Task: structure prediction
Amino acid sequence: MDAPTDLVNLAARLAREAGDMVANGRRTGDLGVRTKSTATDMVTRWDSASESLIVDALRAARPRDGIVGEEGSRVDGTSGIDWYVDPIDGTTNFLYGLGGYAVSIAAADSTGPVAGAVFVPASRELFTAARGRGAFLGSTPITCSTSTTLDTALVATGFSYDSDHRRVQGSRVGAMLPHVRDIRRLGAAAIDLCHVACGRVDAYFEEHLQAWDLAAGLLIATEAGARASDFAGGAVKPSETVVCAPGIHTALLEHLQRTA
Ligand code: IPD
Ligand code: CA
Ligand code: CA
Result:
């Protein structure tokens, strides 16, 4: 049986190490930029270097675990633990010199994420959670917002790199804007989820995420008391994610269901 605290300590150490490396790399100005799925979906040499650092260390420390990394790493495991690695979440921010990027690492078993760490180099904030043990910013326990009214809620969201998806996402956000306090699009799903966890926003929703965007931040937010689901109220999934203060969950779902 793996101790969740061992897993979270490993995730936290590697997220910090990789985060420090990419922040230093950014300062060199040598970004090694390429495109991926679309002309606006970018990857830098630091995304690849971060993933290599994390994957090499995970393979050395836990040779029986599986690994899925955004930049192509796939390791089949036999232990029942799989790691989900987003080596830089918020690559567009990283590319432009904006601080809203993070390294996100989660360990999951057959029932979902069991340990997660999100490190934000620009603020040096480390968010962590282990299943059943609460969520932390550094060593301080965090809890989500106690908001109960959607019309005063600050709602974060994000957009896919696919322009057809963006048309739908744009109309959803347009329909929501008159009914909430305001919308935030920071540019890193893992940080959005951590912001729900510590009450910096009241809610977050997005479609068409991948497992590595969601796994760590989801655990951190739910361990901080947030409620998570898909848009219909079923199990949360990367393709349809709602994570918010429990007091606005029903109202937010009603709204999302009206704006398909
Ligand atoms: C993206 C960011 C963004 C979200 C996109 C993700 P990347 O991840 O998390 O906020 O809206 O859906 O793909 O490409 O920067 O790792
Ligand atoms: Ca991502
Ligand atoms: Ca990424």
